[in-house]
Amino acid sequence: MHEALKHHKLQAWVKDMAGMCNPDQIVWIDGSEDEKKKLEQESLSTGEIIELNQEKLPGCYYHRTSTDDVARTEHLTYICTKKKSAAGPTNNWLSPEKGYEKAKDIFQNSMVGRTMYVIPFSMGPIGSEFSKIGVELTDSIYVVLNMRIMTRIGKPVLDALGADNDFTKCLHSKADLDINKRLILHFPEDNTIWSVGSGYGGNVLLGKKCLSLRLGSWLAKKEGWLAEHMLIMGVEAPGGHIVYVAAAFPSACGKTNLAMLVPPQGLKIKGYRIWTVGDDIAWLRADADGTLWAINPETGFFGVAPGTNTKTNPNAIATIQRNTIYTNVLLKDDKTVWWEGGDGPAPASGINWEGKLWKPGMIDENGNQVLGAHPNSRFTAPLVQCPSISNRIENHHGVPIDAIIFGGRRARLVPLVYESFDWEHGVFVGTTMASERTAAQAGLQGEIRRDPMAMLPFCGYSMGLYFQHWLDMGNKMKKPPKIFHVNWFRLDDNGKFMWPGFGENLRVLEWIIGRCTNIAGAEQTPIGYIPKSGDLDLTGLSINSATLEKLLSVDKKEWEEETKDIEKFFRTFGNVLPAEIKNQLQGLRERLAKSK
Ligand code: OXD
Ligand code: MN
């Protein structure tokens, strides 16, 4: 591989890492189809992947992780900076010396008897000013096959790297897959990521959360752009104009479903279409024209399977019929797959995510239902297979963003949608985001946690400074996007969702776009602008007026309570919290006090 030989620093680093991990051989990944076939054959022969029914699911494979390695492990994830303050109060911290030392012990000889694969990859179109190059060293073929789907890999990336361009040094080893010897370490000052002891996507596909968000946010602060946990979608209005929006929701709150939304009948007749650009990560830059542009640095979806079906997300179902890797779902006897909340009834039997024989209705020794698929089981599928994929995903300049949407999963308090008064207020709204914990993180489900901009687990530096960076970005733009907040998850007194969600969310998007083009009405409230009931087009939707009123209401008492909780959360940041954000909280309190 002569390109690699030109890049002495890359060569030296690979040699160095191989010296520590001691693999039997080193294989440079070129990204070719032949290579893919060889890797598939090899991992089929070891059982690392299982071939699915090639008639029904052509090009699809199945993989199981260890049963204690099924989600991101935030408590084992660290930012390693010289000064603790650089990581801030929301990250686990280790000094670089300590981080390298602890991990070296585990990496030492971890690849004996294995192959070390060298994967050059680009986040973003190769050669775009938005893009960043990384090289991941790994002893897992599953990682190589997933990185092939999720990123641009191989020879064209090495060509772009040339003899001396910068790259993020990413090292991964499964080692013993031992949770007690698992570490996900980020060294932003060295542009380096080390992940050891895990085989779960979010911990090991190092271009994703680790590079695109944790190191990405660090680089973005340094270089004056934004790396965000956001979907990007185009909403084509009747007449053909496409408005692009970027939206941040915490993990497993429906970003993939929204990004692939199919218009409901009532609105389809009007001529709306949705174009998917990305479902998880957005890199955004203020352009010389004074507006914000965004790319999706990834080329695939790593989506949550349970709950995905032809009703909730028909485009996802269409996307994952071929060339897809399924992880930790239920394996059916006919070598197809199933998950809770998927299409069709549960099969009579199958092998579940733990590798055990499974039948519907099984109860474990504690009286709990045994699941077929793990709640955080996943599909990895190429973007281009999505029927709603935008034709601008390879555009080096990305797409122009007119609206930013923050959202959370809140059973009460937060209305269906509201618009912030301006950029600064919108940034404040982002800092106050909160959600109930879901299956994408290990821990207690259902508990409320504050998750500013959905970046709490992903911001690679001191989060107060990150808020400041958002404020500063506003000053770079002549026409910053409008900022909104949505909550699809409000419950009624009987614990039922008040808003139907899924495709019907387009009704809310229509209002958001109407606000961006100054054609939709709204009412001013202490928390922001809210549609009056007549401002949403509800044609064809049966929702009673009392429910709608509740969905669009602001309860003064409950919001006053909320400000106390926000204040408590803000105290975490001490004096790193920007004065503007403190003043915004004060402003909210004053508006609430004045309201009825
Ligand atoms: C994801 C996550 O996998 O946010 O996208 O956990
Ligand atoms: Mn995510």
Keywords:
3 domains; 18 helices; binds manganese (II) ion; binds oxalic acid; Phosphoenolpyruvate Carboxykinase, domain 1
Written overview of the protein:
Helices cover 29% and strands 22% of the residues. It has 596 residues and is an alpha+beta fold. The chain has 3 domains: 2-30 and 73-223, Phosphoenolpyruvate Carboxykinase, domain 1 (3-Layer(aba) Sandwich), CATH 3.40.449.10; 228-299 and 393-594, Phosphoenolpyruvate Carboxykinase, domain 3, CATH 3.90.228.20; 301-385, Phosphoenolpyruvate Carboxykinase, domain 2 (Beta Complex). The radius of gyration is 24 Å and the shape is globular. Residues 229, 251, 280 line the site of manganese (II) ion.
Main sheet overview? 9 strands, mixed
- Helix fraction? 25-40%
Gyration radius over CA:
24 Å
Number of domains: 3
Total DSSP E strands? 31
Number of helices: 18
Write down the overall mean pLDDT: 95
- The CATH topology label of the largest domain is Phosphoenolpyruvate Carboxykinase, domain 3
Proportion of residues in extended strands: 15-25%
The CATH architecture name of the largest domain reads Alpha-Beta Complex
| Head-to-tail CA distance between termini | 71 Å
Bound molecules: oxalic acid, manganese (II) ion
Shape: globular
- CATH C-level category of the largest domain: Alpha Beta
Structural class: alpha+beta
Parts with pLDDT < 50 across at least 5 consecutive residues: none
